[in-house]
């Protein structure tokens, strides 16, 4: 089992605190600093885009988390003496087919849904295809964006979930805690300023979805693939002035935010359950209550 495979380790909760506290203190400091600054997050992002361009801004936004991913993996390997494989999955080796399937499934959905949205409401978008910047965007997205999303997965669905599971001897507590905290670290994103607190339903709901598929599948492979597909495809397909991932995407969303709550509710309470059904059927998931709540 994903968490229980480490129950013979001698690590206590205290050993998980240094890296976790350092990360949350860093995030809290950034939040406080941005709230006290003369410019808000959106204005600071706009300034970066003006000075460096969208592609370089995307690098600057994703590179710190790419560095943190390397730091986390080294910390786990040498401070905890834990293999990266056991942080990733309970299987004998990482299942790359699962990562690719999840990536392809969610990428296909985003491509189709974006195409339908553009066909129905073309006035909501501006075409932004610039061949040379877009080629560089593809390179940046392939290299940096999956590293950024992988840090979030390895930290929340991996490191924190395993540490809290071992400490509390439960599965439900790490699922709830990591999902809520995953949502809260996005509170300073420009989207929250523009769309309001309702978007936290999406961030926290996404955290629960990713946590559920990790626990049910005994590994992070599906979560890694989904999260990478989400950010890579969004950086390539659609950007907006309120997006945390500014890019030279194919389309610029210029619509108002009046339908945002409806879209959030549909994705969290309709699309995510459909994905859970697909994964459950493909990978033979069962005994949901035990796998999501009980420590074995």
UniProtKB/TrEMBL annotation:
Tree of life domain: Bacteria
Residues passing through the membrane, by range: 16-37, 57-78, 99-120, 132-151, 172-189, 195-215, 222-240, 260-280
Ranges where the CAAX prenyl protease 2/Lysostaphin resistance protein A-like domain occurs: 134-233
Keywords: Membrane, Transmembrane, Transmembrane helix
Alphabetical list of InterPro entries matching this protein: Rce1/LyrA-like_dom
Pfam assignment, any one: Rce1-like
Listed name of the protein: Type II CAAX endopeptidase family protein
Organism: Paenimyroides ceti
């Amino acid at each position: 089992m994903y968490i229980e495979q480490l129950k013979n380790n001698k690590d206590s909760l205290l050993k998980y605190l240094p890296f976790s506290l350092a990360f949350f203190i860093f995030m809290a400091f950034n939040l406080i600093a941005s709230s006290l600054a003369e410019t808000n997050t959106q204005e600071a992002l706009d300034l970066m885009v003006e000075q460096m361009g969208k592609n370089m801004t995307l690098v600057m936004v994703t590179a710190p988390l790419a560095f943190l991913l390397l730091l986390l993996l080294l910390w786990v390997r040498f401070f905890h003496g834990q293999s990266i494989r056991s942080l990733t999955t309970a299987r004998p080796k990482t299942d790359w087919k699962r990562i690719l399937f999840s990536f392809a499934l969610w990428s296909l959905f985003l491509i189709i849904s974006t195409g339908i949205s553009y066909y129905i409401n073309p006035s909501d978008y501006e075409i932004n295809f610039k061949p040379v910047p877009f080629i560089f965007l593809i390179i940046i997205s392939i290299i940096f964006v999956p590293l950024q999303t992988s840090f979030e997965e390895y930290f929340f669905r991996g490191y924190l979930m395993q540490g809290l599971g071992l400490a509390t001897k439960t599965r439900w507590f790490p699922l709830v805690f990591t999902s809520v905290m995953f949502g809260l670290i996005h509170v300073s994103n420009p989207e929250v300023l523009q769309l309001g607190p309702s978007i936290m339903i999406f961030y926290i709901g996404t955290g629960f979805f990713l946590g559920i598929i990790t626990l049910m599948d005994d590994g992070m492979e599906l979560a890694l693939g989904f999260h990478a597909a989400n950010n890579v495809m969004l950086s390539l397909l659609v950007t907006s002035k309120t997006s945390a991932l500014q890019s030279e995407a194919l389309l610029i969303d210029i619509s108002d935010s009046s339908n945002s709550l409806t879209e959030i509710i549909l994705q969290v309470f309709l699309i995510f359950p459909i994905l859970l059904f697909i994964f459950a059927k493909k990978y033979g998931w069962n005994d949901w209550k035990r796998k999501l709540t009980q420590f074995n």
